[in-house]
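Weekly sync, protein design subgroup
Attendees: M.S., D.O., the rotation student, P.L. (late)

Item 1: inverse folding check
M.S. brought a backbone from last month's batch and wanted to see whether the design step gives back something sensible before we order anything. D.O. pointed out we never logged the input encoding, so this time it goes straight into the notes. Structure tokens as presented (79 positions):
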């Protein structure tokens, strides 16, 4: 069953986000990222889940989706 990010997770500090990103890249671990966006009903979209394929100065790529650093509300290791 897919992981749903419909509820608001705690907003993480930038240093926490970068730490998890760094560890995920180094250890090739999957992550679940909640984007800082809500729909018309105030719900968050499903988390972006997967391994970080690459990164650049603006964000990371998970599968074929780019997630900008400033869009990340919460990131966790996905198990």
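Designed sequence read out in the meeting:
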């Amino acid at each position: 069953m897919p992981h749903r990010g419909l509820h608001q997770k705690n907003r993480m500090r930038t240093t926490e986000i970068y730490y998890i990103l760094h560890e995920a890249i180094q250890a090739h671990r999957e992550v679940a990222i909640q984007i800082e966006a809500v729909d018309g009903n105030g719900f968050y979209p499903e988390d972006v889940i997967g391994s970080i394929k690459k990164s650049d100065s603006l964000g990371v790529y998970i599968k074929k989706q780019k997630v900008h650093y400033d869009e990340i509300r919460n990131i966790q290791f996905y198990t």
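Discussion: Residues 14-27 form the longest helix (14 residues). The helical segments are 14-27.
Action: P.L. to compare against the previous round before Friday.
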